[in-house]
Write a structure and sequence with these properties.
Helix 5 packs antiparallel against helix 6. Strands 3, 4, 5, 6, 9, 10, 11, 12 and 13 form a nine-stranded antiparallel beta sheet that branches. The protein contains six helices and 13 strands. About 35% of the residues are buried. About 15% of the residues lie in helices and about 20% in strands.
């Protein structure tokens, strides 16, 4: 695993920062951020919040009760753990954790990719023993972004889970067929490299099955299962939902047995923005991906108890109110993409809106905590 970290590149894909969340560049006569007011700028402070726990072992680097200095015995910074999806700048150095300019996420003075960096996410567990090296909530075996820069988080994680899928060369004909049909139904150009199709080794519910995902250049991601009856690809369903029909025995072999699953009447695909919660879109009932069928949108905002920050309900309501059949009840948002869903792009654009609004709102809340 260490070799994977050492070989990681922070500039593998272009990065686009959406919305108004940008750090203010330091200029002459502007003092650098110093959260604990100890005279040491955050960017070189080994204990940013002065709580007595060095950054490399602190589970909340930029928030805690100061033990020394002018703010002694006061709670400073935020209440967000380092691995919270709403933690935008865990070491409070003014550089966003998912900006390409951030090379030392946990602020311990060691660049994330160098040999001597033993604890990238600052959780006190050495990388070699840590099941989630970068603290993003995605276990190492399924994480395509081990150093936590926000780059290359791919739902297919094909390099880390090769046993699930048929080798592409062996499944070339099936991939070609499904890829071509997906591009027609999703409105994707043949030159768009964001679409990828994989074929599962084990048939589910007696069907030829697999997974597709679309990955945009700014890392918006959408994916779903696909399937068709053996030898009848004309029945291809590209938004497949499964139901478990086996015994609830607690035995692993029952839950991984493809025979214990069937195709659900509900069709669904999922979407996610970088290092954020997922949304789902569904067709009920019928085959997914056919023109004229209702496309429902569902999104639940992470609540304050989980993030330490108030959910941006008002901002999201304002941004989404023009959506057909839009409704909002508490932290749950629903709507209808049908009027514009002639391709996958409206769903991707919806993800961009969610990303822009939540990051902007939470970024402002975060900055207020750090003043």
């Amino acid at each position: 695993m260490k070799s994977l970290i050492l070989l990681k590149s922070k500039s593998m894909l272009p990065w686009v920062i959406l919305g108004s969340l940008c750090t203010t560049p330091l200029v002459a006569n502007t003092p650098p951020p110093d959260l604990d007011l100890d005279g040491i700028p955050n960017i070189i402070d080994p204990d940013v919040d002065n709580d007595g726990v060095l950054n490399g072992r602190d589970r909340n680097i930029d928030g805690g009760r100061a033990r020394t200095g002018p703010l002694r015995n006061r709670q400073i910074g935020d209440l967000l753990p380092n691995n919270s999806p709403m933690e935008l700048d865990m070491d409070a150095d003014g550089l966003l954790d998912d900006s390409p300019l951030e090379t030392d996420i946990d602020g311990d003075g060691l660049s994330d990719g160098v040999k001597g960096e033993f604890d990238i996410d600052g959780d006190g567990v050495a990388n070699g023993l840590d099941g989630d090296v970068d603290g993003d909530g995605i276990g190492n075996p399924t994480d395509k972004d081990l150093d936590g820069t926000g780059i290359n988080e791919d739902i297919l994680f094909e390099g880390n889970n090769p046993s699930v899928y048929v080798d592409d060369t062996e499944a070339a004909e099936v991939i070609r067929l499904v890829d071509g049909e997906l591009r027609k139904r999703l409105g994707l150009d043949v030159k768009d490299v964001g679409l990828r199709v994989r074929v599962l080794k084990s048939p589910l519910a007696g069907m030829q099955c697999g997974l597709w995902r679309y990955f945009s250049s700014d890392q918006m991601q959408a994916w779903a299962n696909w399937c068709y009856p053996p030898n009848d690809p004309s029945q291809l369903n590209i938004f497949v939902q499964y139901e478990y029909t086996g015994p609830f025995s607690g035995k692993t072999e029952d839950y991984v047995n493809p025979a214990n699953y069937r195709i659900s009447a509900e069709n669904r695909f999922y979407a996610r923005y970088p290092r954020g919660p997922l949304t789902f879109h569904s067709w009920i009932p019928g085959r997914g991906g056919l023109p004229g069928e209702a496309v429902d949108f569902f999104y639940s905002v992470p609540n304050q108890e989980a993030t330490g920050l108030p959910p941006p309900i008002a901002a999201l309501r304002a941004a989404l109110k023009s959506m057909a059949n839009f409704s909002n009840e508490g932290e749950t948002f629903t709507g209808d993409l049908s009027p514009t869903f002639t391709s996958l792009m409206p769903a991707i654009e919806l993800q961009r809106t969610l990303f822009r609004v939540t990051r902007s709102a939470n970024g402002l809340a975060e900055s207020r905590r750090l003043r």
